[in-house]
Amino acid sequence: MKIRIVCYEDPDRWILGKFARRLQEHLTALGVENSIGKTPDADADVNHHIAYVGYKDSDTGLNSLMVTHVDSVGKVRLLRRQLKTADLAICMSAQTAADLRGAMLPTDKICYVHPAHDGLIVPRRLRVGITTRLYEDGRKNEAAFEDMLDRIPKDDLHFVIMGAGWEAVVDRMRQRGFSVDLHSSFDLTRYQKLIPELDFFVYFGHDEGSMGFLDAIAAGVATIVTPQGYHLDVEGGITHHINDLEDLAATLTAIVERRRLRADAVAGWSWQRYAEKHLELWQHLAGHALTTPAGTRSAVSGGSRDGLTSLETRPDRRLLDRVRFVSRILRTSIHRRLRTPTGSDADYE
What we know:
Order of helices and strands: EHEEEHEHEEHEHEHEHEEHHH
Shape: elongated
CATH class of the largest domain: Alpha Beta
Distance between the termini: 35 Å
Mean pLDDT: 88
Strand order of the largest sheet: 2-1-3-4-5-6
Strand content: 15-25%
Number of domains: 2
Radius of gyration: 28 Å
Number of strands: 12
CATH topology of the largest domain: Rossmann fold
Oligomer: single chain
CATH architecture of the largest domain: 3-Layer(aba) Sandwich
C-alpha cells in the first residue's frame, strides 16, 4: 500500500506538520511506502489530507481527511461538501465524530483516531515536606515514621526535611533508596523558598499543631496532618487528615496511585499506535486485508474504541447525537460572535 500524506503547512513548522512527520516516521517503521507533500499523488492508494480545510475535490483515488476542530456551522457545511468526494473523515475524538453524525454527515465516512504524544514527559517525584525538629525523647514519633517507610512507593516521592536531629534518620532513609533533601538548621530564606515548592506538607505530631502548617496553607500547599489543635480551626486547611503513621502510609500510597492512573490513561497514546490505527482504516477503505501483525499493535488502556471500530453505524443514536451537536454548535457560534462581532463563516460556505 502506498500512502501520500498531504500536509498543507510546512511539515517542519507548527503542530500539523508534526502530525505529518510522526505519521510518516511510523508508517515507514511499519514497512508502508509513503511520502509527504503539499499536493496529492495520483499514484498513491490513499491521499491523507492534513488537515481537512485544505482539501479540494479530488479524483486521485481514495482520500481521507484529518478533522481537527469543527466549531462553526460553516465548517460543518464545508466538511459535508468535502465528503461528497472524500472517502473518510478521521476525527480526533469520539465527541467530534458524534457531532458530525448528529449533523447528518454520512455515518459510514465518520470515524476517529486519538492523537498521540511523544512519551517524553514523565511524572516528577512528589515533594513531601516536613519542618519539625526531633528530640532525644522521641516525642515526634520518628521511630514509627521509619517503620512506615517500607509501605510507601519511594520511587515516586522526594522528602524535603528542615529541622535538627534528623541526620541519622535521613542516613537510613537514603540507604533504603529514598530521595531526601535535609536542612539540619532553620534558615528563613531557604524556608521561604522551600514551602511553596512542596506538593504536600506533612505533620504527624499530636501537640496542638505545627507552625509550618500555617505557612503551607498560606502558600496554597496541600496538607497531610493530624486533625487536632488549631489545625481544626483553619477552614479547609486539612487536605488529608491522619491519626497515625499507618494513615500516612495509606494516604501517600493512595495519592501516588491516583497520579499513576492519570499518567497511565495516555500511556498507550503513542505515535506507533496512531500510525497503526490509520493504516487499519486505509486498508479497510481499500478493501485490503489487515496486514499489521496483532503482536506488534500498540496497547492502549481503557478499551478504546477509536480507529476501525469507530466506523460502526449506530442509527439508534443519530437523533441524540444530532440534538447534542446542535446545542453545542449553537453555544460555540454564540460565543465566537460575542467575542468577534464581525466574525463570519463565509470562508467555509
